[in-house]
Each structure stands twice: as structure tokens, then as C-alpha cells.
Amino acid sequence: ARICTAALGGAAILVAVAWSDIIGLLLLTYHLWAPAIILPVCIGSLSKQRSVWLSTRVFITMLAAVLITLVYRGLSVAASKFDRHPLGESFTAYAAQIDASVVGVSASCIVFALLTVAGSMRHRKAG
């Protein structure tokens, strides 16, 4: 935990120094924070279940949501700053209407649901 905290702190310092626009940095933080934390908080507060498998699903979901949000946001940045449209201009125009945090939270729910279904199927085959 200490190593992870130190690495995250170092990365945060580098991003803060490299990124001069504080509003853009705050938006990026919110876009990454919401997908990573909303589902785990809901699962933790609403579920009575405690298990290693649940913790693993939540952790994988958090990582996937952050990565998907970064990729989605990266596509927006590529289009607006570099005039690049890796998935086509029509996708870029459509994607500009949807906030990155909405995509991330949706991805978080989908990943968690898929992991839950995969886990229950694995347990049925084993049992």
C-alpha cells in the first residue's frame, strides 16, 4: 500500500507539473474518479457479501473503468487537439455528446456484471 501510494503521489506530481490548465486537470480527475469509485461504494454499502472473489471483481472493475475512460477521453483529445479520428469522424461527433464519466460508469457496471456472470458460470461448472 505504501509503494502504491508513493507511486500514485509521484505520478500526480508529474501530471500537475506537466498540465498547466487546472480546470482541465480537475475534469480529468472527476472523469477518472467517478467510474472508479461509484460502483465499489454502492457494492460495499448495499451488499452484505464479503469475499475474496467480490474484492477481486471490484478491483478488476475499477481498473477496467479507468482504462476505458482514459481511452475514451484520449479519443476526444486526439480529435480536438490533433484532428485525428481513429474510429471515424461520425463516431467522434457522436462521442462528443457523451461525457467521459458517463461512459466510464457504464463500463464499470457492464464489466462488473460480466465478471459476476462469468464467476457464477465457473462455480456452476465446478459444483
Tell me the number of helical segments per DSSP (H or I, 4 or more residues long): 5
Query: Which parts are unreliable, with pLDDT below 50 for 5 consecutive residues or more?
Result: none
Termini Cα gap: 35 Å
Secondary structure tally: strands = 0
Query: Could you give a short account of the major beta sheet?
Result: none
Beta-strand content estimate: under 5%
The residue fraction in helices comes out at over 70%
User: Average pLDDT across residues?
Assistant: 85
What's the gyration radius in Å?
17 Å
Secondary-structure content class: mainly alpha
Sequence of secondary-structure elements: HHHHH
Shape: globular
